[in-house]
From TrEMBL:
Family: Belongs to the peptidase M14 family.
Organism of provenance: Musca domestica (House fly)
InterPro entries on file: CARBOXYPEPT_ZN_1 (IPR057246), M14A-like_propep (IPR036990), M14A_act_pep (IPR003146), Peptidase_M14 (IPR000834)
Secretion signal span: 1-19
SUPFAM superfamilies found in the cross-reference section: Protease propeptides/inhibitors, Zn-dependent exopeptidases
Protein name: Zinc carboxypeptidase-like
UniProt keyword Magnesium present: no
Keywords for this protein: Carboxypeptidase, Disulfide bond, Hydrolase, Metal-binding, Metalloprotease, Protease, Signal, Zinc
Cofactor: Zn(2+)
Amino acid sequence: MAKLSLIFVLATLVVAISAASLKTNLSGKVRYDNYKVYKLSIDNKTQLAVIELIQDLREKYIIWKEYDEATKEIHIMVNPEEITNFSGILKVYGFKTELLVENVQELIDEEERAAQLSPDNGEFSWTRYYELEDIEKWLDGVFAKYPSVTEAFEIGKSYEGRTIRGIKISYKSGNPGIFIESNIHAREWITSATATWFIDQLLSSSDPEVRNLAENYDWYIIPVFNVDGFEYSHKKDRMWRKTRQPVSTSDCIGTDANRNFDSHWMENGGASNNPCSETFAGPTPFSEPEAKALADFVTSIKDKINIYLSFHSYGQWLLSPYGHTKDEFPENYDDLLTIGESFKTAIKSLPYETDYVHGSTASVLYVASGSTVDWVFNELDVKVGYTIEFRDKGRYGFVLPPVQILPNCQELMTGMKALVSKSKELGYL
C-alpha cells in the first residue's frame, strides 16, 4: 500500500511539474515571493523515500539542508503554488514540521536593502555582501597595498571564461601552508564575505595571535571559487548553488562542484546522477573545468600545504574526512577530533555562544562523496582537512543577514587560532 501511495505521489508531481515555474522580475532576477522553508523530521524510511522523490523537482522544491542521520531533519523550500499539495503529502505521511522561513523573498529584499544602505564611500566593508567584480577590485587594492607579502595566483578559467583568482600571503620563506577554498556553492555568500575579512585581518590586524597566524604560515586563499555560479546568484537567482556548464543529457544546468572530485566519486549515494539535482556529481569526475583547475593547482603545490579548509554554509559544522562512508575513519581521526574540539570550544567561549558540531562528514552529517576536502586528504595526503559550515541553523539559512557577517568572521578567526594551534601541537605544522 505504501509503495502504491509513493508511486501515486510521484505521478502527481511529474504531471504537475510544468504548472509551477520560477517567476522573474523586470531585471530578470528570479523571485521567491511567499516561498517557505520547512524543517521536516524524518521518522521512517517511507518519509525519507517521499523526500527523495520530490527533492529533484527544483521548480517546486529546493533542498536547503539535506537529510542527516544525526538530526534526522531536512530543510526544504517550497514553491507557494505547491503548498497545498505539499501540505497534503505532509499529512498523509505523518511528517512533523516546523516553519523556518515564512517568505524567502523578504529575506532577499532585506539583504538588498542592506547593500543599498551601506555607505558608498568607495571602501570595502563587511556590512553587506559584494558581487564578484567588487571582490576582484578589492583584491587588486590589497595587492597594491601589500606588495611585499602578497602574491596573486590564478588556478584557471571557469566554463564561462572567468578567471578563478587567489591570493597568497607570505611573510617569510619556509612557512607551513594553509589553503582555503571559498564559495564553491554559489548561494553561500557568507563564505566569500568571511574569506575577504580573514584576508584583511591577516594583513592589517595588530592582535598578537593574528600576527602569529599571518607571519608564521603561508596562506593560499580563493575567495570565490565558483565564479560563474556566484555571478549568476547575484544577477539572476539568489538560490543558485551549482556551476553553470550545461549538461549534454538534460535541460538542467550545472554540477555540484563539491561532488565532482575524483575521490570515491558517486560512492554510497553520496551524490546524485540526476542533472536536475542540487547534488549532481557531473557526468564524470572532473567534468567541471573549475574542479579540474583546482585539482591541478593544488597538486602543483601539494608539498607546501599542511592544512586544507573549505568554507561553506550553513549549519555550524566542522566536518573532517571521510565523506564517502560512515563505517570507516582515517588513521588520524582521533587527532582530527581533538583539533575539532579545540575549534568548537574556542567559538563556544565567545559571547555569541555559537555551537558547532564536529566529526567526520558521513558520520555526523551525511554521506557526501567527491568533495574537495576528501580529495585533497585522500589523493594528496594532506592530513588535516575540514569543511567548515558557517552560521546559522536554519532561521535564515543561505540568506544570512549582513548584520551577522562580522560575528561570523569573529567566530571563524577565534576557531582558526585554536585549529592552527592544536594542529601545530599535534605535529601537523
